[in-house]
């Protein structure tokens, strides 16, 4: 997601996340895997953010 951004902008994103690090594709894949599993069969119409807490800091 941040590959095309200048290094300063990438650092700003990381500084504004609660976890203070970039995520990786596996972290998104784990959420998708869970959503596709029977464990999530009662989940409907939900927005699940996988953003390292970026949305919480605003």
Commentary on this structure:
- The radius of gyration is 14 Å and the shape is elongated.
- The model has no long low-confidence stretch (mean pLDDT 88).
- Helices cover 34% and strands 0% of the residues.
- With 58 residues, the chain is mainly alpha-helical.
Present the secondary structure layout.
Elements: H1 7-15, H2 25-35
Shape: elongated
* Terminal residue distance: 19 Å
Structural class: mainly alpha
Following the backbone from N to C, one meets helices and strands in this order, namely HH
Q: Quick check: average pLDDT?
A: 88
Number of strands: 0
Instruction: Assign the CATH topology.
Output: Helicase, Ruva Protein, domain 3
How many domains would you count in the coordinates?
1
- Parts with pLDDT < 50 across at least 5 consecutive residues: none
User: Number of DSSP helices?
Assistant: 2
Biggest beta-sheet profile: none
The top-level CATH class is Mainly Alpha
Percent strand equals under 5%
CATH architecture: Orthogonal Bundle
In terms of quaternary structure, what is this?
Answer: single chain
What is the helix fraction of residues, given as a range?
25-40%
Radius of gyration from the alpha-carbon trace, in angstroms: 14 Å
Provide a concise account of the structure shown.
This protein has 58 residues and is mainly α. It has two helices and no strands.
């Amino acid at each position: 997601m941040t590959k095309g951004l200048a290094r300063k902008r990438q650092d700003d994103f990381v500084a504004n996340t609660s976890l203070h690090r970039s995520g990786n594709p596996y972290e998104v894949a784990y959420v998708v895997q869970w959503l596709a599993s029977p464990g999530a069969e009662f989940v409907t119409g939900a927005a699940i953010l996988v953003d390292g807490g970026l949305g919480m800091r605003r």
